[in-house]
Design a protein that fits this description.
By secondary structure, the chain is α+β, with helices and mostly antiparallel strands. It is built from one helix and nine strands; from the N terminus they run H-E-E-E-E-E-E-E-E-E.
Length: 137
Amino acid sequence: MRFHVVAGCAAAILVASFLGCGGGGGNPGSPSGQPPVTGPSTISIVGDRAAQSFAPNPGAGGVDQAVVWRNNDTVTHRIVVNDTQLDTGDIAPGATSRTLLIPAGGANYHCSIHPGMVGAVTASGGQPPPPCTGVYC
């Protein structure tokens, strides 16, 4: 009878050890030394405060220069890259934009509803964003 109790405890310990060592989920890339898989970078919209309207500013693109904006303000905003090639559409208070893929060289952007709100996303590899030119700088 003792043998069965000890064997049962050993099996429970073995299962618990397996689950505690990552067998129960988590990032499959981590055990092999691969960097964790991440999604888009998030830039918070904090209000109509010129270059301090976004945090962080400049922001950094996530995987493949992917960026989303999270509206932490109390009014709707619409983020447009200054060359007008990328546009989030309206972002309601508390909402998050769709993911935009920022060019590898980085980009400058503004809120089309509140044009004084300006920001930038750094180039891939952490290089500074391009110089801002035009009416939104």
